[in-house]
């Protein structure tokens, strides 16, 4: 019930946003240029103070998909235990989304991970570096056009011999 | 790793002269990191000015593998995420898959999953408190904590045949039903475990050295805990009363009577106490579950065409063989919607969630794991700032960072 109110208040504040329900979860798709506003509204206006996760899905080979990347923001309200999923679609050639580190400090590493594995750049992130992969790495391995094996990324690593170490 | 300085915390810029600061490398191979993680510490004397974590040494592309293994195969990968409590990961993964597929498992399966989830929570907390004692100089305590884990491994072995990487769950049920012997072993464990907890509490809770080293160290306030996405015992030690077992009851958790253990202080000692208290509550849950274990099948019916038949059926009946074939062949298998869903469970370290995107095939289109260790290690630079070098191990121990889950 309260999730419906949240969706209603979102559409009052930002105009009609496409919302869908599946297995008790509500997903709202937000245009990426309003993403920060929407999340700020949810945090400050609706009490969604807990950022559960930020992740990304590459829809390159997904059936009927139009956009390339779908960013997924899972937020929760620690007082009412309400959850809502905010999705934003970004596209090649330069996938970009606003950073939400100013709203939630916890977003710091989550956004770095999405940048590292998908190559979605978060504007306004204070320290957007690769996190899991080495800095020399040049590809984004969780993209669907990256193969499971191969591409010889091991060759790109600098080799340090015992003499020069 | 290039030492780019973090501008997140508004520190003095790199141009200022600071020759008096030492840069020290900590890890990736260090006895107190327990696994491979690296820290670069900026020290003023013995005081830590800044800690820069460098992770990824154990990155093995688990999420990429999740896109190439089917829903039953991927459970072997989840074992290797948090290898201290693999059963919790198994349960979280398959409950998430069943949420996507819309399967409701039978009550006996729910109860058994709760039992293994709580037993692995005990196992995880024993490692955490034991290793915390070890790092702060209490070696005997570590042995006291690790001894009962051996009994837990025996129980897991009786349940599923594997001690360490269990892979106990399957879509729509479990690998095997619990045998009477396994149930008796769990009962025996429960009978002996209160004494272990009493020993642990009496050994260390009032130990002057341990209390001095952990009290007031690495304080996390309630506001910061929520803002930095902390969950599980770390958030609860800071006064956040969030426990998914109570707040969003899943499996059979609504049936049990248990408390959510919280503390106010938010320091290492509070996190230690919360973990100790949670072990008692887990023990109560297992006790209630094992005495009220429902009878009946452990898997959903074969008519749903989602659960693998038992090996006996596969090898001796044609129907079993056909069902097995239908499920494991890559062009048949489960009836998966073109949808995505998120399921979160309360694992030992916090909220362990899986975000699964289904695309109609046997394999997940995307299998995202929300790893609690990853989120919790991000707060480490915040916790350690201003404390001494020797407090690094106390804070690391209290966070219980499992590097395999951190890097995946």
Q: How is the secondary structure organized here?
A:
The complex is a heterodimer of chains A (165) and B (408).
Chain A: H1 2-14, E1 19-22, E2 25-29, H2 35-45, E3 50-58, E4 69-76, E5 83-90, E6 96-98, H3 107-118, E7 121-123
Parallel strand pairs in A: 2-5, 6-7
Antiparallel strand pairs in A: 1-2, 3-4, 4-5
Chain B: E1 22-26, E2 38-44, E3 47-54, H1 62-66, H2 75-79, H3 86-101, H4 107-135, H5 139-160, E4 169-170, E5 173-174, H6 180-204, H7 208-214, H8 222-227, H9 232-236, H10 244-247, H11 268-291, H12 311-316, H13 318-328, E6 340-347, E7 350-358, E8 364-370, H14 372-378, H15 380-384, H16 391-399, H17 403-407
Antiparallel strand pairs in B: 1-2, 2-3, 4-5, 6-7, 7-8
Quick overview of this protein structure:
Helices cover 22% and strands 24% of the residues of chain A. Chain A is of the alpha/beta class and 165 residues long. Chain A has one domain: NADH:ubiquinone oxidoreductase Nqo5 subunit (Beta Polymerase, domain 2, 2-Layer Sandwich).
Number of strands of chain B: 8
Multimerization status? heterodimer
- Percent in helix of chain B: 40-55%
Strands ordered across the widest β-sheet of chain B: 1-2-3
Major sheet of chain A: order of its strands?
A: 1-2-5-4-3
**Total individual domains of chain A:** 1
Shape of chain B: globular
- What is the succession of H and E elements of chain B? EEEHHHHHEEHHHHHHHHEEEHHHH
């Amino acid at each position: 019930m309260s999730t419906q109110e949240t969706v209603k208040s979102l559409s009052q504040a930002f105009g009609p946003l496409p919302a869908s329900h599946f297995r008790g979860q509500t997903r709202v798709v937000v245009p990426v240029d309003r993403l920060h506003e929407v999340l700020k509204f949810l945090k400050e206006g609706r009490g969604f103070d807990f950022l559960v996760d930020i992740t990304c899905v590459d829809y390159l080979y997904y059936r009927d998909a139009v956009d390339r990347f779908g960013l997924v923001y899972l937020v929760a309200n620690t007082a009412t235990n309400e959850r809502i999923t905010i999705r934003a679609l970004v596209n090649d050639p330069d996938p970009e989304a606003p950073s939400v580190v100013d709203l939630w400090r916890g977003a710091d590493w989550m956004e770095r991970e999405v940048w590292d594995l998908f190559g979605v750049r978060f504007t306004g992130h204070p320290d957007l570096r690769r996190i899991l992969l080495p800095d020399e790495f040049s590809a984004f391995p969780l993209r669907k056009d990256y193969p499971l094996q191969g591409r010889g990324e091991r060759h790109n690593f600098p080799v340090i011999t015992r003499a020069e170490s | 790793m290039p030492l780019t300085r973090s501008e997140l915390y508004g520190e003095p810029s790199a141009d200022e002269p600071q020759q008096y600061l030492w840069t020290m490398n900590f890890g990736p191979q260090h006895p107190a990191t327990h696994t491979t993680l690296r820290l670069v510490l900026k020290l003023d004397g013995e005081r830590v000015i800044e800690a820069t974590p460098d992770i990824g040494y154990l990155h093995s592309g688990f999420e990429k593998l999740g896109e190439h293994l089917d829903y039953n195969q991927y459970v072997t990968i989840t074992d290797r995420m948090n290898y201290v409590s693999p059963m919790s990961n198994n349960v979280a993964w398959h409950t998430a898959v069943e949420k996507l597929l819309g399967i409701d498992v039978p009550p006996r399966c729910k109860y058994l999953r709760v039992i293994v989830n709580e037993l692995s929570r005990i196992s995880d907390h024993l490692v955490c408190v034991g290793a915390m004692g070890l790092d702060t100089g209490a070696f005997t305590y570590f042995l006291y904590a690790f001894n009962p884990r051996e009994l837990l491994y025996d129980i897991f072995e009786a349940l599923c045949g594997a001690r360490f990487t269990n892979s106990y769950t399957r879509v729509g049920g479990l690998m095997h039903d619990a045998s009477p012997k396994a149930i008796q072993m769990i009962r025996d464990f429960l009978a002996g475990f209160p004494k272990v907890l009493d020993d642990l509490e009496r050994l260390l809770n009032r130990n002057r050295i341990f209390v001095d080293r952990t009290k007031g160290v690495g304080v996390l306030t309630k506001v910061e805990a929520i803002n930095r996405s902390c969950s599980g015992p770390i958030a609860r030690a800071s006064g956040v009363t969030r426990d998914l077992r109570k707040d969003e009851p899943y499996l059979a958790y609504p049936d049990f009577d248990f408390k959510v253990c919280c503390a106010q202080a938010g320091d290492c000692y509070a996190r230690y106490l919360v973990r100790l208290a949670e072990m008692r509550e887990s023990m109560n849950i297992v006790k209630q579950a094992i005495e009220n274990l429902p009878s009946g099948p452990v898997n959903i019916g074969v008519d749903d065409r989602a659960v693998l038949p038992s090996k006996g059926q596969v090898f001796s009946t044609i129907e079993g063989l056909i069902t097995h074939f239908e499920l494991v062949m890559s062009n048949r298998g489960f009836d998966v919607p073109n949808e995505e869903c998120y399921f979160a469970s309360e694992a030992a370290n916090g909220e362990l969630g899986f975000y699964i995107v289904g695309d109609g095939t046997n394999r997940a289109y995307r299998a995202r794991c929300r790893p609690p260790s990853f989120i919790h290690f991000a707060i480490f630079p915040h916790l350690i700032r201003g404390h001494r070098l020797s407090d690094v191990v106390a804070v690391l121990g209290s966070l219980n960072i499992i590097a395999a889950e951190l890097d995946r």
